[in-house]
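Fold sample X.
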Amino acid sequence: MARHDIDFSELMDVDRLKADCKAVVEGGSRPSLEVRAALLPILRKASVEGREKARELLNKDGSGINCARRISWIQDNLICVLHQTIVEHLYPEGRDISVAAVGGYGRGTLAPGSDIDLLFLLPEKNTEGMRKAVEFLLYLLWDMGFKVGHATRTVEECIRLSKTDMTIRTAILEIRYICGRENLVKELESRFDHEIVADTGPEFIAAKLAERDQRHKKAGDTRYLVEPNVKEGKGGLRDLHTLFWIAKYYYRVRDTADLVKLGVLSREEARSFEKADDFLWAVRCQMHFLTGKAEERLSFDIQREIATSLGYNARPGLSAVERFMKHYFLVAKNVGDLTRILCAALEDTQAKAAPGITRRVISRFTKRQHKIAGTVDFVEDRGRITLADPGVFKRDPVNIMRFFHVADITGLELHPDALKSISRSLSLIDNTVREDAEANRLFLSMLTSKRDPALMLRRMNEAGVLGRFIPEFGKVVAMMQFNMYHHYTVDEHLIRSVEALSEIDQGRAAEIHPLANKLMPGIEERDALFVAVLLHDVAKGRDEDHSIAGARVARRLCPRLGLNPKQTELVVWLIEEHLVMSMTAQTRDLHDRKTITDFAEKVQSMDRLKLLLVLTICDIRAVGPGVWNGWKGQLLRTLYYETELLLSGGFSEVSRKERAKAAEEALSKALGDWSQKERRAFSKLHYQPYLLSVSLDDQVRHAQFIREADRAGQALATMVRTDSFHAITEITVLAPDHPRLLSIIAGACAAAGANIADAQIFTTSDGRALDTILINREFSIDEDELRRAGTISRMIEDVLAGKKRLPEVIATRAKSKKKNKTFQIPPSAIISNGLSNKFTVIEVECLDRTGLLADITAVLADLSLDIHSARITTFGEKIIDTFYVVDLVGHKVTNENRQGNIIARLKAVMSEQEDEMRAGMPSGIIAPSPVPTPVAPAKKSKASA
C-alpha cells in the first residue's frame, strides 16, 4: 500500500493543532523560552495520542509498513505545524529555508523510537533569522524527547560533501520535502542526480556492500542468532534498505515495482521484498512500543510478548514464540535471496555497459568465461562457477546438485547469476530428483568432503536446495529453540556440527580435542558419522522425543543416501543416543562404577564409543560461542577412558582395593623428600575414593597444601590454581568437616559471582574436609583470573570464619541481577537408588538463579543427607544438578515417606518457597563462627563411601 493510499485523518486533527499553536503565540511578543514552554504540552499531546492510535491500528491490521508510514506522517505534520507557527509569528525569515527528511525518515517510514533525520536547506544568501528559526524548531523537538539527527547546509555544501562522504550521499539519496521552500529540495535532487549519481553506480554499490559486510561481521555474521538485531543484523531491515539504496542509485527508481518493469525482480520476488519489509517493520514497531525505546535487539525477554502481539499461536511441537521466530528467520533468509538476485542483475547490467565505464569497473564486471574440465553444463566466470546456458537446470534437474558438487571439487565461488537461477528452479527438485542415485551420491560426496563440507551445506541451505532435497531438514530450517542454551537455529546448529566434525577430520583440532583428533583417522564408518552429525537434531520441533523421531527419519533416509544396512543401523543408534554421553559426563559421578557399567551397557562396543564421543563433541561445539570448554572435554575423555577400560575387560571390582593400595604407595613414594613419619601420615590421610579419583600430581599438591596449613596453625585455608586448557579455575578448601560446608562454599561463590562447574568432596581421616570447587574461568589472562579467584577465596574464608553473613551477601548479589521472568521451567526433583551401588542419586532441574546451589545444599544438610559428590551443570537458563548422597549412617535413602519429604523440600526451595516451609528454623547457610578446632570424627560419613 502506497503512502497516499492510507487514511491518516484519524491519527491527528491537524487543523485543531494549528489553531492551538496559533492561540499560544498570538497576543503580544514573549521571550522564545516562554513560547517554547507553552507550545511543548500541545505538541507533545498530539504526538503521544497520534502514536498511540498508530499502535492500535498496528494491532488491528498487523501492517508494519503502514504503522511506520503513519508515524512518519504524524512527525511530518508536527514539524509542518511547528514550522508554520515559527515563520508566521516568530521568525518570518524561516519561510526561506527548506525542511527535508533524509535517511530512513526520507523514505516516509519511522519506528516509534527512531531518530528524526532532518536536513535544513538554506539559500546561498542566508540570515541569522533563518538560523534562529532552525534552532527554535530543533529545541522544541528535543524538548519533546525526540532524537534528532540534523544538518544545516546550502545546496552547494550538500553537493560538495556528498562527493567525498558516502554516508551523506546515502542520506541525500532519500531526501523528501516536508515544508518551507520546496524549490531548494528540487534543486538539490536535480544537481545530486546529475553531478553525483551519474556514472558512479559501481562506486556506490561497492561502498554499500562493503559497509553491509562490515555490519554483518560486527553483528555475528549470521542471520540465525536466536536474539537477532532486527535493524542492523544479517537479514534485517538495514539489508533491505541497502538493497533499495543500490537499486534506487543504479537504476534510478523510486519503488520496488519499478524493478519488476526493468526485469530485475520477478513479480513474486517483488512481493517477497514487500512482505519482508512489512513483517520486519511490524516486529520493529512492536519492539519500540513494548519497550518504550529504540530497542533493536529481539531479545528473549520480549520475544514472547511480540509473538502474542502479532497473533502467533502454539502448534504441536512448537510454542507460539518459536513459530514467530521461525517466521522471522525465514524472512531473514528471503532477504538474503533477494540480495543475491539483485547483485546478479547488477553484474549482468554492468557487464553489458562495460564499454562506457572505467577500466576498474571493466576489470570487475566483464565476463571472462572458461570451460571447466569434466562438465559442459557449467563454466568459470572470473573465479566463479556459473551456467553454460539458461536451460541447464530445466534440461536435467540433477544438475542443481552437480552445480554444487563441481563448485566443491574445483573450489570456485558461486556466481550470483547462477544462484538466482537456482532460486527460481527449486520446484524442479521433486521426488524423482530426491530418489535419484546420482543426486544422492553427489550429496554424500559433498557431505563427507575432505575440503569444506559445511561451506557447501550452508550454500545449499541459503539457496533453498538443502531443504528441498531433504524435506525433513527443510522442516527445521529457520527453527529456533526458545532457550538461552542454543544460540542458533536448528539448521545452522546442524551445519556448524558438520563444520566441527570436518575440523576434527582434517586433524585441525589436536589442541582442543586431543582424544578425538587421535581417534578420527582410525574410524572406519566415516560416512555414517557425517550423516549422523548432520541429522542428529533433524526431528526437533515435533510433538515427541526428537532423538527417537530423528532415528526414525534416519532409518528411511540413509538407504536413499547410499548407506548399507550396517551403516544405517549405526546412524539410527547414534541419533537415538546422541545425548547420552553428554548427559552422563556432565550429570553423573564418573568415579562411581555403576555410572560406567550402565553407560558401557548402552554403548556395547568400542566402535560405537568412538563415534559417539566425536558426535557429542560436535554437538556441544555447535551450540554457540562459549558453550564448549576444556572442562567438558575433560569430562568426556574421563568417561571415554573409564568405559574403554570396561569394554576391553580391564575394569573389575576385585582390583579396586589393590588399585587404592597402589595409589597410596605411589603417593608415599612421590613425597620422597619428606620424613618417613610424614609420608606415612599423609598417605594414610585419605580414603579410597580420593586415592582412586584424584591424580597423583594433585595428591602431592594437596599434601603440600595441608602440610603448610598445619605448620601455620590454620584451621581454615584455601588454595587456587588456574587451568586455561580446561577453562576452569580450581579453588581447594581445607576446613573442619561440617554438614553444611558445601552449602556455605557454594553460597560464597554465588556471592562472589562465580559459576560452579563441579565439586569434588572428600573427608580426611582426621575429620577435615578437603573440597575442591571448580568454577568457570572468566578471564583469558592468568594474572586476571588469579586475582578474581583470590577474591572468591577470601569470600569463602570470610563466610566460613563468620566474618560475613551469607544471606546478606547473596541478597546483595541477587539485587544486582535482573530476575529472569522470560523462561518458565517447572522445578523437578528425582530420587534414584538404581544409578549407584552405594549412593542415592538426587537430580534436580529448574530455572537458575543466584544462590540456588547454596539453598539446595542447605536443604540437603537440613535433611541429614551427606553429599559424597556433586555434578553442577548449567544449560543456559536451566540447571541440572546431581548429588550422590547417603544418610548419616552411610546408607541409601530407601524410605518412601522420606523420599517424598526430600522432593517436597527441594521443589519448595527451587520455587523460592523454602523460607515459608522453614519458618522458625535456624538458617541452613550461616556458617558457625569461629571455625571449630579439628577433631577426629566419630563416623567417617563421606569417606566411608
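Fold sample Y, listed below.
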Amino acid sequence: MLNLRSLVLGSTAGLLTVSAAVAADLPVKARAVEYVRVCSLYGAGFYYIPGTDTCIKLGGYLRAEVALGTISMYNGAFNSVGGSQNRLSNYYTARAREDLNIDTRTATEYGVVRTYFDAVYHWTTGSYVGSNSATGATAYSGTLVAGTSATGSTTLYGSGSGNVNNTDGNTSGGGLGVYLAFIQFAGFTMGKAVSQFDAPWTGYPANNFDSLVGGGADPTGVNQFTYTADFGQGVTATVSAQDQTAYFQSAIWNTSGISPSGIMGGSYGANTLGGSRAPDLVGMVRVDQAWGLFQASVAAHDNQTGYYGATEVAGHAADKWGWAAQLALSFKNIPTGAGDTLNVQGVYTNGASRYNFGYNLPASFSMFGSTGLAGAYQSVAIAGLSDAVLATGGSLQLTTTYGFRGGYTHNWNPYWNTGLYGAWAAVRYNGTAKGLICGSAAITTLALTGTCNPDFNIGQAGVITRWTPVKNLTFSGDFNWTRLDQKYSGTITAPVTPAAGKPAAVYELKDQNSLTLLLRAQRNW
C-alpha cells in the first residue's frame, strides 16, 4: 500500500513538471488591439487617441497663390520699392503654403480641456533690396547709404539673394510660422490666440486682402491670458490681458530725429518705443443669435517711450495710456439668398492706432505716381501712422484714428459666390504734434510750397469671386483698390530717395492709388 501511494505521488509530480515545461514553451496570449474610435462629442473629424479619453482632430490646407501689383502677400504697394512704381517693383509675388492644425479635447469635471496648435510652412517670392545710387564720385550728402560704395561709386542693386524674412525667396529656403497655440480650461484661454478685441471675421469681412483698415485684425494670434463668462442664450463677456508688442503698437516718433529723407519715406522722426511694461487690457461683450451677432470691444494700451537720447541720463517722457473702442454686427441668411452674410464694424482709437490699422499695414506710406505739373519730376503721397508724437524734452501727443469696414457675400449657387467689401479710415494729429512736424527744419529743407498737414485718410474697395467645384477645393480672385488721401499740398524739393530709387527733384504732393489682384487655389482637409 505504501509503495502504491509513493508511485501515485511520484507520477503526479512528474506530470506537473512536464506540464510546466510545456507551458513555458507556449506563446503568451496577446492583449486585444485598441482600434481608433470615432469621437462624436465635438463634431465631425474627431477620434479618440487610443488608450485615452482625449479626442483629436487634424486639419489644415494647402494653398498656391500669386498676387499682382504688390511686393508682399497680400498687401498694397504702399511704400519703399512697392510704392516706387518703377523697375525695382515686383509686378507679381508668388507663394506656396501648407497649414497644419491639431485640436485636442478632453471632458473633465471642470468642463472640456482643449489645446489648439496651428503652424504654417511656406515659400514666397523674394523682393528687391537696396537701390540704384546716383552716378558720381561722391556718396549722397557725403554720407554712405545703401546703394553706394565707400568711395561713392555706383552700385546697382538687383534682387540680390532675394530673400524675405531671411529665408523666403532663397532657392531652397522657406518660412515656418506659428499662428495659434493655446490651452482652454474652465473659461480661461492661455497662449497665442486671436485677440478678444477682434470681430469673429478678424480682418476679413468678405475678402482675402490682408490690409483692410477699419478695425482690429490679428488672425495669426497674440499671446494672452483671458477669461470668458458664458451667461447662456448666446451671451458671453470676456476680459483679457494681451501682449501689445507683436501686433498692437505702432510708432512713437521723436521729431527731434526727423529728416528730409525720412519724411519722403513716410517717417516723422526716430521711432522711440520703449520696452513693454504693461499688457493691453481688453474687454468684450458678444451676443450670438440665429440672425447673426453683435459685439462691443474696448482696449487700453500703454504707450512707453525709450530715452530722449542715446543713454538713460538723457531722460524720457512719461507714459500715457491710449484706448480703442469697436462695435461689430453680422447678419446671416439675409433675404438675398441662403447663406448670404453681411459683416460691418466701426472703430475709434486714441493712442492705440493698430486697433484700426491692422498689423499687415505699414506705419509709413510713400507712394509715387505721375504728374501733370510743369517743373515736377513725379508726384508723391506721404503719410505716417503712429500711436504718439513727441520732441526731446516734451510729452507724448497721442494720435487719433477712426474708421469702419464691411463686406457682403452672396451665394449664386452651391459652387459660386461673390463678395463685395470696403473700408475707410482717418488719422488725425493734434495741434501740438502738427507743430512739431511742420515746424521742423526738415520741412524747411524740403521747401514745401503748399500746406503742411500730416493727417491722412485711406479708402478701400474690392470684389472677390470664389468657385468651389468640389468640396474643400476653392479657386478665388480678389481685386482691391486702395487710395491714400494725404493732406499735404503744393510741391517739395526732395533729396535722393535710395529705398525707392528716386532722384533728387521737385515732386508734386498728390493722392495716390494702389491696384492689386490676388489669384488663389486652396485645398482644405
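Sample Y note: The chain has one domain: 59-127+162-524.
Also: Residues 59-127+162-524 form a domain with the Porin fold (CATH 2.40.160.10).
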